[in-house]
Each structure stands twice: as structure tokens, then as C-alpha cells.
Amino acid sequence: MDAPGTATPFSTLIRTASHQQHTEAETSTFMGDLLGGRLGVDAYTRYTEQLWFVYRALEDGAESLRSDPAAGPFIRSELMRSTELERDLAHLRGPGWREGLAPLPATAAYAERVAECARTWPAGYIAHHYTRYLGDLSGGQIIRDKAEKTWGFARKGDGVRFYVFEEIANPAAFKRGYRELLDAVDADDLEKQRIIDECKRAFALNTAVFRELGEVFPLSA
Ligand code: HEM
Q: Where is the composition biased (Polar residues) (predicted)?
């Protein structure tokens, strides 16, 4: 057992535990093709649609968790992405963007797991919150830059608003604050381990969505 004060911070544990899966997600065929400029805007649109289903589950679930001792501190209105995704989709699909919109099976499974955690296991919801929002604040900015250049969206404009956190002036500082919240999470060691396991599951759920998107948009078709 670690002496008091020397235990590895939870924010470090969760980052280290998901590091390998992060690399897998980052280097998935679909992401590589998308960010390599080898796919059309239809693939980017389809990807954005999947995000909408996931964020709807994350953010529909958020309201009831505001007063939860574990998940409550993480619920911050400046992170919310549903409105931005809807503006992006209106730009990408037109005003009737909702018509015919359906999640891929992997997306439906991902959104269902997020909703289940929000309903029944707030600490597990933190794993999903971390996996998405901290990623969006980090690599999301790389994706935005590529998307603007590849498909000609206005800088930080319609089509890439999902990646623009208007109310977070200093993402690096925000991420530091977020890691402090993780380090102070109201959970014992066993529960922290379960959160880490759920984070790995969250990454796997993302990778499964990329896999299905890769099947819909194969380069060699
Ligand atoms: C091509 C796609 C991606 C790129 C280029 C990318 C890039 C990055 C970079 C550069 C960081 C480090 C930021 C820092 O040290 O402050 C980061 C962090 C992160 N990314 Fe990604 N990423 C990608 C995909 C993903 C995906 C698909 C997920 C999960 C859904 C994800 C989740 C995260 C998380 C949770 C962090 C924060 C790690 C931590 O500091 O605790 N990323 N990403």
C-alpha cells in the first residue's frame, strides 16, 4: 500500500489505463481515412450523426445527476454539446436533419450503455463523461482543424461547432481543473477500479462505432 500522500492520482490512473485503447481509437482505419482526407463529407456527416446519439444520452442523463455526490461535480453547462451538434447537423443535412436519422447498431449500444449508467450508476457515468469530453477538449481540436481544411467549413463555424467550446477560454486550464475533480472523486478504491474498467469499455464502444463506420465507408469499395 502507498504511504499517505504518495498514491498515484486517479486522473493519472485513468489516463494510463486507457492509453493503449486511445492509440487504437486514434489509429482506427476510419479515423485515419477521415483525417487523412481520403473520405468525403458524407462520411464526416455520418460520424457527426453518431456523436449526436451519444451526446444526447450523455446530456439527457446529466440533468438528474447534478446533485449526485460522485457525478454531480462533473456536470458543467459549458461542456454541453447537443446544441452545437444540432447546428452542425442542420448545416450538414439541411433543416430536416432529423428525418431518417438512425444510429448504427454500435452507436445504439454505446448510447444505451451511457443512459444505463446515468440511470443506475452515476460513478460509471463519470467514465463516459471523461472519455468523451476530455477527449473533445484535446484531440478534438486536431479533428476540427482537419475537417475545416478537408471539407471547407468556416473556421470554428457551422459543421465543426461540436469542437468549439465557446465558454471555455482556456482548455488547458479547464483540463487541469477536470483532473482535480477526478482526483477528488467521491469513490473508494474498488469503485475507482470499476470506473477505470468502465472507461475501457467506453473506449471499446467508441472503437466499435469506428469499425462500423469503416464498413459503411470502405476506401476500397
Ligand atoms: C484521431 C483521433 C484522435 C486524436 C488525434 C486524439 C488526440 C489526443 C491528444 C493529442 C490528446 C492529449 C491531450 C493532452 O495531453 O492534454 C488526447 C487526449 C485524450 N483523448 Fe484523444 N484523440 C483522438 C481520438 C480520441 C477518441 C476516439 C477518444 C475517446 C472517445 C479520445 C479520448 C481522449 C481522452 C479521454 C483524452 C484525455 C486523456 C487524459 O489526459 O486524461 N481521443 N487525445
A: 8-26
Number of domains in the chain: 1
What spacing in Å lies between the alpha carbon of 187 and ligand 1's midpoint?
A: 24
Cα–Cα distance for residue pair 161/194, rounded to 1 Å: 33
CA dist., res. 165 & res. 128, Å (int): 19
Residue 88 near residue 158 (C-beta atoms within 8 A): yes
pLDDT in tens, 96-146: 999 999 999 999 999 999 999 999 999 999 999 999 999 999 989 999 999
Distance of CA 85 to the CA centre of its chain: 12
* Ligand 1 proximal residues by C-beta, below 6 Å: 15, 22, 25-26, 31, 35, 130-132, 134-135, 138-139, 142-143, 175, 203, 206
Measured on CA atoms in the order 95, 99, 104, 108, is the torsion positive or negative? Answer: positive
> Is residue 220 in some structural domain?
no
Does residue 10 fall inside a structural domain? Answer: no
Q: How many angstroms does the Cα of residue 22 sit away from the middle of ligand 1?
A: 7
- What CATH number did the domain enclosing 62 receive? 1.20.910.10
H helices present in 130-168, as ranges? 135-137, 140-151
The cell numbers describing 111, all together, are 448510447
Q: Which domain holds residue 53?
A: 15-214
Q: For residue 6, name the pLDDT band (cuts at 50, 70, 90).
A: low
pTM for this prediction: 0.95
Residue 9 in any domain: the answer is no
Average pLDDT score over residue span 25-30: 93
